[in-house]
Design a protein that fits this description.
22 helices; Spore Coat Polysaccharide Biosynthesis Protein SpsA, Chain A; alpha/beta; 698 residues; six-stranded antiparallel β-barrel; 12% strand; 5 domains; seven-stranded mixed beta sheet; globular
Amino acid sequence: MQGKLNQWGSALTQARLWSVPGVTVLALMASLAVFILMLTVSFTLGAQIFFAACFFSAALYIRRYAGTMVTLVLLGMSLLASTRYLAWRFSTTLGQGFSADFVWGFGLCMAELFLCVLIALGFAQSVWPLTRPPSPLKKDSTEWPTVDVFIPVHGKSEDPIRRATLAALALEWPRKIINIYLLDDDTRHEIKELAESMGAIYLAHPDNQGGKAGAINAALPETKGELIAVFDLDQAPASNFLKVAAGWFVRHLSLGMIQPPTHFLAPPASEVNLKDCPVSQFAGVCALIRRSMLVKVGGIAPGPPTVQAHTALKFQQGGYGNAWIGFAGEDQPDNAQQARGAESSGTATQTLLRVDHPFLGRTLRWKQRLASLQAMLKFYYAVPRLVFFTAPLAYLLAGVHVVETTPEYLLAYGLPHLVHAHFAQARLQGKSWFTFWTDMRETALAWYLLVPTALTLLRTEFGKFKDAFSPNKTDKVDPFDPIIAWPYATVLALNLAGLGAGVAELMTTGRGAQVLTTMYLGWVICNLMLLAAMLAVAEESRQIRLHSRTQRRQPAMLQLPSGRTLSCVTENFPQAALAMRLPAPAGVEVGATVGLSIFRGDREFAFPARVVSNQDLFMHVGIMDAAQNDFQRLGVAAFSRDQNWPQWLPGRNADRPLPEWLTKPMIAAFVRLLSFIEKLAHAMRLVRLGHWIQKWKR
């Protein structure tokens, strides 16, 4: 939403006053002095509650407005609330002397400090996203750079290879200056014949060293394109990919690698493009690379665990640019099934710290070093998670006071810290960030990441690469995963013991101790809810997927043998065996030939098909072999759309920690209260107050 607040912010940033020498420095010093004053001032309990309420009301009001200025204000408020909380924790809530209370309390404070530093580094990177538009190419296509498209096909079957090759052939680029290469780890004659039939070039990498990186490096001497595009089999690049990205190589001669945003069909976005921290990592696929600079840095970094971070660092240390175009929100591993990949990523990051030493790179900026530090620290969030799960047990089971304060003071200082941190995170990552889902995901991955990353930090040779789990259809599926479950079960048992001890203490102690025990019991109950969710995840059946998730509903029409047409919807387009949902049963025998029309926009695409099964409102048809190539091309065109991908994202208001059935009555009651105050203000002839309330209600 735009309003007066945005106008004031725009007028402030564009004021002529900033052109006066020294004004910027004075403004920074004054802002720092105010920040330190608000940080160090000591409040009574009532004053702290009033201060927190004013801060909360201001944040709740301004977060409705769009703009970078508002984002900066929300982040500043979050940092101030968190810093005040940490200063209060270290100064007044630790035990006296070197006692058990002090040791446990200090450990909890350090865990909170670790997370706050991690969040602050994330804010510093994400505060100013940069939307980098496409750079136009010259009108004369003969002056465009030559392109080699590399598609690693290691161990994959013909169907995904055919889809990926068709997607590459659909790229909008002159045929004379583009070549498609299928990179394999061993010679497979059927794949070679497939490549030749589709107009691609098959290159085998016999020694099978280095995985995808080794295959790409081995293909460099055998190819000659100025630019190299790398695609994975599970990706369908937009047809205008090269036109969008290649212009930047002509515009910036120091640019070595560029990547566009990528989205899965169930889309979290893939990366962050930052103005103040130019440290884009190489994702391994869906990238456009300048050949000459790739050769100068020694090719793709070998070793699957380190290919992403090491390749990006090699470009940065060589003085070459690597960037993202477009904008997408942060993305991290999505669930416990992907923990193997996260473990390898954490191992790669710690290996980067021990081997390549990004802090010593002369060509790296201090912002890039901070970004590397944040990437390394985030793999140790398992430590504070474990501290938070066990801290209340120290009091409930052993009588150790980890927080030397009353519940009232803890809420007065701790609640603003949590609420403003949520406001800031939702502001930066609201399109792909969900409050409680994030906690569950991070907790699920914590146990996997702690041990391998710690071992790799000590000895880099301990790091091993593990591919994502992809079983065959005949594999035995165990509905319960004990490897995932046992850490949660252990901590869950301890928290249940703490819950029992706390309930027993409530029945036997006085009122003063009961208040403190109730606070720790509430903490334990929150832990139990999160741990129960983790055990529920461990109980889920494994996901077995033989094909990439390229399926969608598509309007279609069937032409029956009788000449009758039937409007229907495909359930799994563009699979060759289509499942059709019919509006009414169709009396068609199995094996009959039907006509199938797929609609994309205003265009109709007709294909011959044969009925495989027909039951009630569902019919399965198979596309005839003669029309397979045309059908696959249509599927590629449907899934390689450029402008429609971002529209699939849930939007800025996706994160709703409170359900709608609860927030609607609360908002309605608050609006009625404002209406009453507005009428009272008009009755008392307080016109300005009435207009202000009316405007705020909107």
